[in-house]
Amino acid sequence: MPHPRPLTRTAGALLLAAVAAVAPVALAGPASAEPPSRLAEEVTDSAGVLDAADRAEVVAALDDLADRTPYQLFVVYVRTFDGTSGADWADETAVASGLGRDDLLLAVAVEDRQYQVSVDPDLALTDAQLADVETDRIEPALRDDDWAGAAVAAAEGYADAATGDALGPDGARPGGPDGGLVLGILGGGVLLVAGGVGSAALVRRRRAAAAVRAELEELDGRASSALVAVDEAVQASAQELGFAEAQLGAATVAPFAAALTQARTDLAGAFAARQQLDDGVPDTAPDRRRLLATILETCTRVDTALDAQSAEFDRLRDLHARAPELLADAASGADAVDARAATTATTLADLTARYAPSALVAVVDNVAGARALADRARAASARGTAVVGSDRPAAVAAALEGADALAQAAALLDAVDAAATELAQAPARLAAACTALETDVADAARLGGPAAPAVEAPAARAREVLAHARSAQSAADPLAAASAVHAAEQALDQVLDPLREAEAARARAVERLPQARAALDSLVVGAQAIIQSHRTVVGPTARTRLAEAQRLAESSVPLTGSDPVAALQALEAALGLADSAYRSASADVDAERARRAAAASWSWESTSSRGGFGGSSGGWGSSGGSSGGWGGGSSRRSSSSSRRSSSRSSSRSSSSRRSSSGRSRRGGGGRF
């Protein structure tokens, strides 16, 4: 049984002080009530008496019961039964949880030292079998505070009772041919058998506990190794940070210093969790697993952060070592940008001559911007070269500034080349976009009109856009023309899509109408044939549905040309009604046939029992013969009726006994 950890630490003392200050009544009050409630799972332990191994053992026993029998056992441990009787608490919990006929509930109030079993009145196990399990299996374990053992013993007891393997009152298996011999030879057979049951449960508990211990030991080893490795890594990173700061300057390594501070904070939390595990206060298996998982997660996070900083340190050291080379590259790169800018300026001049300013607004200043960035890179190179021997961090910063300026300059010149390519391809793309928009305009003319006024405005706009795109003006800015065509197409599609869907639905309806009408005609003819052949048998239901089906069929005819979708809907509704009429008429005929067959059978049996029509019973008034006359048959029926009446009386008596106890469910319990 897990024990609460004493609050010996400062945090624990502060927590107690805070709780005492704000809630003295709660600290002094009784344990919180635990009223009956719906169970969320098979094993509920709000009393906290099961550790991980105990729970695993109980679940295994419940699974075994469910595998061997039709029964499912639910177990709940609470501190108290909330001031009510155990029977009321268990029964109300069973009802609230929706337990069925083959479900059993074992409720244990550990502080009240009471337990209760609650089962459905129709459970196949007898009261005697339930009482045996309670007395011989559950109570001995509860008296020893073996909370898991009580549930395991209950599951085993119910399984044995259901399969015929329950122990008899003398310890022998019922019906066993050698039970007396075993007792005669061994003398202490009862203790041996009972010991066998207990030892089996003990073995299972020990195996489950061993599995949990092995898992925790493996986690403990991994957590300890990770903690040592990460502690070493943090110390090594602190030394590297000092070297890097001396080489690169405090400003350069400031992000790394912040990352190392966070790593130390996280590592301190991991050490605190390790100390909680090693403080000598027993921890439950779930608590140990949680703390070990926290250590492993923290170590992984810190290690990942340090690895990232290590890679960045390597890059900065490389910059420090190669600062003279990088500064020279910045100067030569500036010259290369100037040379490329001259070529790009020619390209931009050609584009300016061919296209409108609106087509080049994004790149018109790019050549000048690239040349300015080249000058900036050249200045940074000169500034860094001047201090490369005396102030290496400043030289590195200048080299980085020059490299960044060159990258921006290259991007500006690349944009001019990309614009030239886009403008060269724009006419072909514009032509394809115009073709697509022309298709939409044609659809608008076909689907629009007075019935679709929303189409007119976007269709008119589309025609205007097409006219402009086809004109010579679009050549000055084909990109803008293509953009306008795409916008017009989207606006027109938005109003045309519902009309296109309606058109497709209309086409489908036109195709399906002949098939639906033929199927309806067939059903109507069939239903009419049954009604006409059995006019006195078929009732109003079939006739009403057939009439409605015919009405709907007639209403669909004028809609066939103007609204085939509505016509098809009417025919499909008529099909459903005609099918229902056919089935209803058939059912009426079948019922009449069954009634006549039953009447004929009764007439034959009645005549035979009276000995009529040459029967062997001795005539109408005879009571002789093997089948008996009216008097003999009546006597036997009265006897049978009496037995059934007696059975019902017995059932009522049993029900009365349950009512007198105030329970609608069965099961025993009591103190332990």
Protein described:
This is TPM domain-containing protein. Residues 606-672 are annotated as: Disordered. The protein is mainly α and 672 residues long. It folds into 5 domains: 43-163, Diaminopimelate Epimerase, Chain A, domain 1, CATH 3.10.310.50; 207-315, no CATH class; 327-417, no CATH class; 428-498; 507-601, no CATH class. It has helices at residues 10-22, 24-28, 52-68, 86-96, 127-143, 147-163, 179-186, 189-248, 254-277, 285-321, 323-354, 366-387, 392-447, 456-470, 478-533, 540-556, 559-562, 564-609, 630-660; strands at 43-45, 72-78, 103-109, 114-119, 669-671. A 5-stranded mixed β-sheet has the order 1-2-3-4-5. Helix 12 runs antiparallel to helix 13, helix 15 packs antiparallel against helix 16 (540-556) and helix 15 packs parallel to helix 18. The chain is flat.
